[in-house]
Amino acid sequence: MREVQCPSVVHMSSVSITQVSCSYVGGYKSNEKYLCRNDCGSDNDVLITTTQGSKNRYSISDDTNKRVFTATISNLNKNDAGKYWCGVMRIIFITDNPFSLTLTL
């Protein structure tokens, strides 16, 4: 089983907000969760963490009982299309599977 499960593709059209929910294995309940863009190769790619809660157009929340965290992007525009990752922080980032956000505006 992957340590973090997310949808592989999110299609949006003519909406201003999207939410992506990602599940994780039980051993990561207390770990920080995050949403990042591109290849998640640097801290600059990280858009939001559960420690931050919300920042600019991004927010993230963690339901530790269900082991699901949900990342939200508001005020979507065509520049938001691309590859994103949901992950769990350990000593290193765990980004098991990316998802692609496709927008038709």
UniProtKB/TrEMBL annotation:
Pfam families: V-set. SUPFAM superfamilies: Immunoglobulin. GO terms for molecular function: transmembrane signaling receptor activity. Keywords: Membrane, Transmembrane. InterPro entries: CD300_family_receptors, Ig-like_dom_sf, Ig-like_fold, Ig_V-set. GO terms for cellular component: plasma membrane. Its main location: membrane. PANTHER family: CMRF35-LIKE MOLECULE 8, POLYMERIC-IMMUNOGLOBULIN RECEPTOR. This is Immunoglobulin V-set domain-containing protein. It comes from Anabas testudineus.
